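Exercise 7b. Backbone tokens:
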């Protein structure tokens, strides 16, 4: 009997050791642009794990850009290297969906039943849909704004409190800033990398990338001509230099550039890097057509990739948390992106008072009614298509092509890359 009691005690200890109270689910998460998102992701994942101790978040190596990110995911799809979740640029969701890479969130949303109460309105959900299919949840959304150096504007005879409202005014004041000398430049228009900032000019003129039936290229029409002419005038009339992305950023935060046009998502980093070197201001970006002009919605969406049902449940929890009210309260102040969760935007508990206390963030918020989807080209050549637009914009910046030549050459190249009907 004594030996039997010892056996039971030992068995109990063994069972205690071998049967943990909670099995841990490990999710591997991939994201792009660590310069914008590393601190944000670290903060969100830490809070999520505190609230969900049975789920562990580990990060795959981040990708430098949205383009590199989607190419990485497409290479890894269906392999052991593929992460459980990723964050995909909004204009690349279509490309991923055409390869059947993302998990359809429709059934998860139907099962959840109370998405609106969590701040996910129908309009917000549509930002990450492809042909009506919910392929993700919008995580960080942005629009392009005008950053400007109030000290240089003042030195050139302008009023920092009344920034330019038209491209004519920007170019005229930019030329005066360039004339100040001492290594000062006029404008850094962030055209490099992808087609987003060209879209800002094209959509701002009321134009579109392709025809409504997607059968022909439309960006080389009258609106595209107006858009590319603005780039040409920035160079010819205001002396805009040929900046790389990094050089433009460094020159602006050093106080050597009057105007910078780029994503509102870079605002927090810009504030930090400028410090007290000069009077940093922000304003809405001018529109070529102030009545019909629109702006592209930049940013990304959280996408579930894992086909494992148990992991999908944990991944859905993380996706909602990251794109939900708490995630927005980290993303907006930590970057400059605009809120894509209505609960976060309206509630004092989250961001309700933030914009009153942080006026530099208001430009992007004011432009939200003009935001339309960042155009996603059909077919698997989306990255090459946008590179063709970037390469031909570069020809206008370096003055080796006229606006119409560059547009027509880009259009010819894009036609070859689009799927044949």
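Sequence design result:
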């Amino acid at each position: 009997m004594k030996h039997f009691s010892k056996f039971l005690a030992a068995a109990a200890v063994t069972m205690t050791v071998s049967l943990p109270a909670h099995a841990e689910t490990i999710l591997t998460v991939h994201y792009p642009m660590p310069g914008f998102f590393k601190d944000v992701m670290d903060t969100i994942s830490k809070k999520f794990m505190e609230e969900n101790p049975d789920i562990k978040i580990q990060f795959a190596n981040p990708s430098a850009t949205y383009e590199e990110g989607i190419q990485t995911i497409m290479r890894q799809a269906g392999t052991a290297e593929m992460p459980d979740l990723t964050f995909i640029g909004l204009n690349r969701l279509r490309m991923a969906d055409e390869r059947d890479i993302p998990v359809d969130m429709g059934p998860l949303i139907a099962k959840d039943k109370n998405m609106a109460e969590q701040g996910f309105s129908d309009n917000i959900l549509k930002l990450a849909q492809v042909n009506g299919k919910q392929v993700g949840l919008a995580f960080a959304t942005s629009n392009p704004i005008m950053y400007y150096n109030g000290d240089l504007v003042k030195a050139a005879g302008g009023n920092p409190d009344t920034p330019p409202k038209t491209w004519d005014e920007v170019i005229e004041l930019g030329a005066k800033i360039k004339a100040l000398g001492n290594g000062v430049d006029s404008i850094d228009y962030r055209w490099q990398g992808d087609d987003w900032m060209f879209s800002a000019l094209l959509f701002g003129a009321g134009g579109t990338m392709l025809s409504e039936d997607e059968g022909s290229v439309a960006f080389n029409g009258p609106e595209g001509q107006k858009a590319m002419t603005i780039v040409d005038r920035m160079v010819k009339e205001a002396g805009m230099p040929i900046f790389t992305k990094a050089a433009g950023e460094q020159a602006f935060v050093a106080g050597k550039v009057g105007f910078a046009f780029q994503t509102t998502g870079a605002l927090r980093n810009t504030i930090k890097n400028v410090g007290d070197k000069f009077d940093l201001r922000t304003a809405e970006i001018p529109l070529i057509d102030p009545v019909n002009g629109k702006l592209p919605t930049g940013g990304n969406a959280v996408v579930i990739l894992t086909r494992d049902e148990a992991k999908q449940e944990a991944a859905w929890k993380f996706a909602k948390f990251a794109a939900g009210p708490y995630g927005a309260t980290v993303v907006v102040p930590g970057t400059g992106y605009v809120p894509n969760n209505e609960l976060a935007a309206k509630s004092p508990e989250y961001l309700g008072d933030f914009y009153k206390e942080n006026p530099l963030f208001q430009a992007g918020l004011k432009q939200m009614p003009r935001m339309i989807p960042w155009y996603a080209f059909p077919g698997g050549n989306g990255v090459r298509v946008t590179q063709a637009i970037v390469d031909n914009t570069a020809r206008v910046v370096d003055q080796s092509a006229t606006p119409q030549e560059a547009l027509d050459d880009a259009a010819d190249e894009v036609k070859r890359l689009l799927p044949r009907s």
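Instructor comment: Residues 1-21 have pLDDT under 50 and may be disordered. The chain is about 45% helix and 15% strand.
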